[in-house]
Amino acid sequence: MELTIVKPDENHASAVATICANGWRQTVEGKFSEAYQIKTVDFWYQYERVSKDISKGIYTYVAIINDEVVGVIGGGQTKANSGEVFVLYVDEENLHNTNLKQM
């Protein structure tokens, strides 16, 4: 098993969208209505949006184990002298299936 961290490309867009949607929903579970969660996920984490954001550099890196994207981080400069992490999510299901403890 090998962990690699790479800049994402369009081939990663579907996995990034899924990981971010699941991670965000997990974060807000019990805090926002189901309708609001669906609306937000449909806006931010649909394939076309994520693909465009990857090409803009908003999704900065993906973590890959066994050819599967298992994590994503993204962010950018928000002011002249500062930046912000917008997303930092991992795919818990894939991590459990990779036997990460051996790393």
Ordered list of secondary-structure elements with their pairings:
Elements: E1 3-6, H1 13-28, H2 34-44, H3 47-56, E2 59-65, E3 68-79, E4 82-90, H4 92-97
Distance between the termini: 8 Å
Based on DSSP secondary structure assignment, what is the total number of beta strands? 4
Order of helices and strands: EHHHEEEH
Rg from Cα: 14 Å
**Count the helices. How many?**
4
DSSP strand (E) fraction?
A: 25-35%
In short:
The protein has 103 residues and is of the alpha+beta class. The chain has helices at 13-28, 34-44, 47-56, 92-97, and strands at residues 3-6, 59-65, 68-79, 82-90.
Describe the structure.
The chain has 103 residues and is α+β, with helices and mostly antiparallel strands. The protein is built from 4 helices and 4 strands. The N and C termini lie close together (8 Å). The relative contact order is 0.23.
What descriptors fit this protein?
103 residues, alpha+beta, four-stranded antiparallel β-sheet, 4 strands, globular
